[in-house]
Write a structure and sequence with these properties.
With about 180 residues, the protein is α+β, with helices and mostly antiparallel strands. The protein has 3 helices and 7 strands; from the N terminus they run αβββββαββα. The protein has a 7-stranded antiparallel sheet with strand order 1-2-3-4-5-6-7, with helices on both faces. The chain starts with a helix and ends with a helix. About 15% of the residues are buried.
């Protein structure tokens, strides 16, 4: 009985080690593809669409293609107190990586000194240097989220239902934008 248990334990540890190595090499491959797309961005064809209904101030989606092969979609949503940006990276028409940034402004973009004094009894106005930025990085294999790095570049547990739902939401959203771009 003990021998069988030891064998299962060894097999479990080996399989986890192999899976970790596989994810590491997959992540490295995605990073190479990401760098290739970023390096060649100026040579890609692009198209833009306006996006309404997803933020108070609207947004813009820009798709980048190498011939007819989709490589990148950049989506920016605008707001008076911040903006959100997400970049979807593709290889062979599949989402491989998403980079998300949220920008939180210290004051609304239209905020004047007079507004600050009247509303908050201070004199602070919109200052882009005081913008707080948070980032998330999402790695996909066959459009399934397998690695999520949060703002501190720490791994989030993607096996939880809530976190795996984030991956599904991202895939669904990028597919929605692709459909909008085709119209």
């Amino acid at each position: 009985m003990t021998r069988t248990l030891n064998i299962f334990l060894i097999l479990f540890l080996i399989s986890n080690s192999i899976l970790a190595q596989n994810n590491d090499s997959l992540t490295q491959d995605i990073r190479l593809k990401y760098n290739n797309i970023r390096t060649n961005l100026g040579t890609l064809d692009s198209t833009k669409i306006d996006i309404w209904g997803e933020s108070a101030e609207g947004g813009i989606a820009t798709a980048f293609y190498n011939r007819s092969n989709l490589k990148l979609i950049q989506v920016v949503w605008f707001g008076e107190t911040g903006k959100k940006m997400i970049e979807y990276y593709f290889y062979n028409d599949k989402l491989i990586f998403a980079f998300e940034q949220a920008f939180k402004y210290n004051r609304p973009i239209y905020w004047t000194k007079k507004d600050s004094i009247e509303m908050l009894d201070d004199d602070e106005v919109f200052d882009p240097q005081k913008t707080e930025i948070t980032e998330n990085r999402y790695y996909f294999n066959n459009e399934n989220l397998y690695l999520w790095l949060d703002n501190e570049k720490k791994e989030k547990d993607v096996t939880t239902a809530t976190n795996s739902e984030v991956g599904n939401r991202l895939v669904t959203h990028c597919r929605k934008i692709i459909d909008e771009l085709k119209k």
